[in-house]
């Protein structure tokens, strides 16, 4: 089942935000995340807020979803100025899920069109949709490009059939280069998402997946270590001994292999799990998350953030639609982060990216810890001497441990 929403304070029915959300907003980018909760099948490793048609039943029609989603965008366009936030054009828009491209391309275009009418797009705005390779056609990608989408992120995950089977992925590996070619022909930038560490995946399997992804020539590649979430089918399979568990050493070996292969092919890391050909090819939407910008998350279970105020919507599409149909905000709860929590998150997220964290942003003990981290090979020495904490390859493998040492009292 989908993951549980966090605890928090009740969110008001009108959706209005506290004053903290508006403080300094003119200096932050404004982004939009659009959650499309539909999938053709539930992958065994996934705990995202997604649903198949059988799970949804009546009351949450895919046919009506674009209209329901646009109702939240219209609510947002009222809530933000009423809460004191300035009108800002959208720097990035990201359609995630689920499988956004299970909706007709015309519906995705209509959602983007309404967002553009309400806020406008900044010059050179990045507009991305996630997609499964078997959920697109040349025609659908052409429609998306014509509507203003600039980028598509395909869930490749692996090029090896037995690994895809464990993950419950439905596409044929041969479909990936075909989908990439169609996207290129439509004028879209392309990212490929990979997962490593799947039970039963050998090092040779992972090498094959990396080589297949590189051969497609995408602008951007993400490589995520498989995390086994409680409540998923995969977690139950591991618990019953049907498939082997996760091995941290195997993850480390495969991460180092990814760095070597991708660097040799001309991809540079810019976040622990992400590589791009050039700085312009980096995913600006995800960078906005890591840098603490503002975003409105639309859709069931979607999370939003404005100036240290975080809130999240009700999870089920039927409940989400019912609230909007009665003029009530779909927000289920929210929290206002205090200064200490914001500092913790800033250190944790900024350390993950290649820009690094300015040493002066650390407390006295954190600054003292930097020398030991350099000695341990976890932080780049020349960068630190120039005033920036930047992870080495070994530091990326142990990023959480680095953050703990930087935040020690």
From TrEMBL:
The protein's name: Heme chaperone HemW
Cellular component, GO, one term: cytoplasm
CDD domains in UniProt: Radical_SAM
Record's keyword terms, sorted: 4Fe-4S, Chaperone, Cytoplasm, Heme, Iron, Iron-sulfur, Metal-binding, S-adenosyl-L-methionine
InterPro entries: Coproporphyrinogen-III_oxidase, Elp3/MiaA/NifB-like_rSAM, HemW-like, rSAM, rSAM_sf
Coiled-coil regions listed in the entry: none
Subcellular location(s) of the protein: Cytoplasm
SMART domains registered for this protein in UniProt: Elp3
GO biological process, one term: porphyrin-containing compound biosynthetic process
Principal localisation: cytoplasm
GO molecular function per UniProt: 4 iron, 4 sulfur cluster binding; coproporphyrinogen oxidase activity; metal ion binding
Originating organism: Crystallibacter crystallopoietes
Family listed: Belongs to the anaerobic coproporphyrinogen-III oxidase family. HemW subfamily.
UniProt keyword Transcription regulation present: no
Function statement: Probably acts as a heme chaperone, transferring heme to an unknown acceptor. Binds one molecule of heme per monomer, possibly covalently. Binds 1 [4Fe-4S] cluster. The cluster is coordinated with 3 cysteines and an exchangeable S-adenosyl-L-methionine.
Gene3D superfamilies registered for this protein in UniProt: 3.30.750.200
Domain Radical SAM core: 24-271
PANTHER family named among the record's database cross-references: COPROPORPHYRINIGEN III OXIDASE (PTHR13932), RADICAL S-ADENOSYL METHIONINE DOMAIN-CONTAINING PROTEIN 1, MITOCHONDRIAL (PTHR13932:SF5)
Top-rank lineage group of the source organism: Bacteria
């Amino acid at each position: 089942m989908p993951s549980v929403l966090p605890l928090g304070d009740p969110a008001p029915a009108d959706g209005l935000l506290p004053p903290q959300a508006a403080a300094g907003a003119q200096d932050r980018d404004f982004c939009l995340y659009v959650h499309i909760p539909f999938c053709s099948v539930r992958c065994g490793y996934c705990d995202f807020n997604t649903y198949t048609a059988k799970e949804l039943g009546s009351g949450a029609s895919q046919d009506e979803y674009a209209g329901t989603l646009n109702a939240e965008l219209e609510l947002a366009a009222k809530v933000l100025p009423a809460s004191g936030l300035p009108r800002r054009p959208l720097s990035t828009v990201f359609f995630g899920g689920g499988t956004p491209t299970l909706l007709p391309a015309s519906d995705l275009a209509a959602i983007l069109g309404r967002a553009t009418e309400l806020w406008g797009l900044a010059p050179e705005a990045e507009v991305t949709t996630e997609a499964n390779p078997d959920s697109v056609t040349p025609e659908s990608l052409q429609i998306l490009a014509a509507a203003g989408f600039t980028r598509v992120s395909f869930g490749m995950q692996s090029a090896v059939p037995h690994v895809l089977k464990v993950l419950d992925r439905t596409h044929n590996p041969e479909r990936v280069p075909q989908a990439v070619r169609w996207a290129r022909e439509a004028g879209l930038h392309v990212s490929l998402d990979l997962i490593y560490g799947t039970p039963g995946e050998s090092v040779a399997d992972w090498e094959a997946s990396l080589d297949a992804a590189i051969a497609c020539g995408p602008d951007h590649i993400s490589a995520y270590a498989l995390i086994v979430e409680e409540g998923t089918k995969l977690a139950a399979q591991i618990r019953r001994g049907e498939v082997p568990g996760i091995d941290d050493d195997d993850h480390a070996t495969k991460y180092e292999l990814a760095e070597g292969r991708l660097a040799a092919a001309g991809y540079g890391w810019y976040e622990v799990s992400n590589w791009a050909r050039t700085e312009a090819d980096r995913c600006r939407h995800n960078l906005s998350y890591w840098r603490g910008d503002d975003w409105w998350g639309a859709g069931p279970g979607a999370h939003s953030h404005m100036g240290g105020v975080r809130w999240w919507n009700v999870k089920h599409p039927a409940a989400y639609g019912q609230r909007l149909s009665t003029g009530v905000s779909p927000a289920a709860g929210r929290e206002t982060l205090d200064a200490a929590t914001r500092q913790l998150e800033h250190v944790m997220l900024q350390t993950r990216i290649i820009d690094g964290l300015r040493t002066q942003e650390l407390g006295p003990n954190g600054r003292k810890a930097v020398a030991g981290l350099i000695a341990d090979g976890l932080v780049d020495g020349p960068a630190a001497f120039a005033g920036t904490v930047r992870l080495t390859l070994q530091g990326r493998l142990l990023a959480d441990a680095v953050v703990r040492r930087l935040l020690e009292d």
